[in-house]
Design goal:
The chain has helices spanning about 5-20, 45-50, 75-80, 100-105, 115-135, 150-155, 160-170, 195-200, 230-240, 260, 265-270; strands at about 55-60, 65, 90-95, 140-145, 175, 180, 205, 215-225, 245-255. It contains eleven helices and nine strands. It is an alpha/beta fold. The protein binds zinc ion (2 copies). It holds the Pfam family Pribosyltran.
Length: about 270
Amino acid sequence: MKFNTVLKYVKSVLDGFWDLLYPPKCVFCAALMEVRRDKIYICESCRKTVRFCANLHCCAVCGAPMVSSEYKYCASCYNKRKNGFPIYFERIVGVFEYNDDSKQGILALKNAQRLDAYDTYSVLLHGMLLSKLGGVNFDMIVTVPPSRQRMNGIGFDQCVRLAEKLEKLTGVKYVKGCMKRNRETLPQKSLNLGQRMTSISGAFSLRVPGDTVRNKTVLVIDDIATTGSTVNECARVLKEAGARAVYGGVIAITPAPSAVRTGSDSNRYAAVK
Ligand SMILES: [Zn+2]
Ligand SMILES: [Zn+2]
């Protein structure tokens, strides 16, 4: 028997013991589940309530789910373009719509007892990257620099764990600590567009030598995108250092504003169909 075959056998036996000791649970409701080959632990009941971006029409830039499939871009991205706010990233891709149903599952990321959630989320994010950005050859993965609040709350950085899992799934190198946070920022959700741009501007800077990112296609990992401003600021830093293209990969994205979700303002958005 070859050494690799023996290793695989030993690993499968150890995995079996692990599953007996810690039976898999749904990442949303913690219901006990059978072991699954795809490692996606979301029970049948939660699959019915959670909204997967894969099944929704999402903005072609920030990835926000929209109710109407009439428009290519959400109102926020449309207004940014119209008002000359620069968008530095190419596109953001998310796994779930962030709402009351998915909130519990996302909180599992912050729960040190639910480290199994990272397997489910990284497999799902990998699937979304393949289906939506399959033609993109990433050179490196980076993470949004954590806020003090994030680190204090859970003691570890969930984006780092996600990026490490994605590195294993994709084979794309994760450059840890690529960017640093220069200062704390206000929660983006509470601010209007202009305030968001001002609040986040200059909040991050590059920690690695510029050569690391020059001419590279970069994937930025974050947990939740509420406005795309955080990924945008990371993209600004990376592009200024010479990155060729920057994409965002997140677990959840808040839905687009209702004006576009209902498609009620057709004249205003007709130009960006
Ligand atoms: Zn469940
Ligand atoms: Zn958008």
